[in-house]
Amino acid sequence: MSRRSGILEFAVLGLLREAPMHGYELRKRLNTSLGIFRAFSYGTLYPCLKTLVAHGWLVEETGDTSEDALPASLSGRRAKIVYRLTPEGKERFEELLAHTGPDSWEDEHFAARFAFFGQTEREVRMRVLEGRRSRLEERLEKMRASLARTRERVDGYTLELQRHGMESVEREVRWLNELIESERAGKDQRRSTTDGSAQQDNRTGSPDGLPRNAGDESSGGNPSRPVTPPDPSDGTVN
């Protein structure tokens, strides 16, 4: 299975864990909720769904809405197929959710993993965040070395583009640092509360591990909306 197919499998299982969906609704959720899939088609989604059904991780059911329940001869259209996660599919998703290997630190896979952090154990979140930060710090070091070598040989616009790419990576590293510190603070607060030695300090982090200002900066001042990871394509130079 290709890396791209693996990411799609993970995202489909994760969304269907929330609720059964038909193909159009699932594609819409992938496009709107997970921006990394904004440029994929039904020709990519349906083979993935068929594969998941063949593995026994999904089942196909006929839509049960009033319109879908009409006979095809009366409604003039085919009934929608709804995809539902099976118990085996839930186990498969939880297995993928617990994975913290190097592929979970890469640009596209990390964005998909982050979208399901609300369902991920704190220890796994920490390993993924720290792995992502390590990967970006390595990338940043290479970018700085490349910029130092080519500074005198490129025109001003190319130089600005390289600087923009570096700034994008530096910004994500700072964002990751904040998340990691908040995760650690939340863990320490939970331990202190369990021991009865201290109450949660609202100034250092939220119970779910997100920075206190995440809602202000990433969701238009609405802390109830999930923070969105920086777009890895935003000027980042590999």
Provide structural commentary.
It contains ten helices and three strands. It has 238 residues and is mainly α. A three-stranded antiparallel β-sheet has the order 1-3-2. Helix 1 packs across helix 3, helix 1 packs parallel to helix 7 (107-115) and helix 8 runs antiparallel to helix 9 (156-195).
How many β strands by DSSP?
3
On the 0-100 scale, what is the average pLDDT? Answer: 79
Q: Which H/E pattern describes the elements?
A: HEHHEHHEHHHHH
Sheet/helix structural class: mainly alpha
Indicate the multimeric state: single chain
The low-confidence parts are: 65-70, 202-207, 214-227
Q: Report strand %.
A: 5-15%
How would you summarize this macromolecular structure in one to three sentences?
The protein has ten helices and three strands, in the order H-E-H-H-E-H-H-E-H-H-H-H-H. It is mainly α and 238 residues long.
How does the SSE layout of this entry go?
Layout (H helix, E strand, L loop, with lengths): L2 H16 L2 E2 H11 L8 H13 L3 E5 L3 H4 L2 H4 L5 E5 L1 H11 L9 H9 L6 H29 L5 H40 L18 H5 L20
Antiparallel strand pairs: 1-3, 2-3
Helix pairs in contact: 1-3, 1-6, 1-7, 8-9
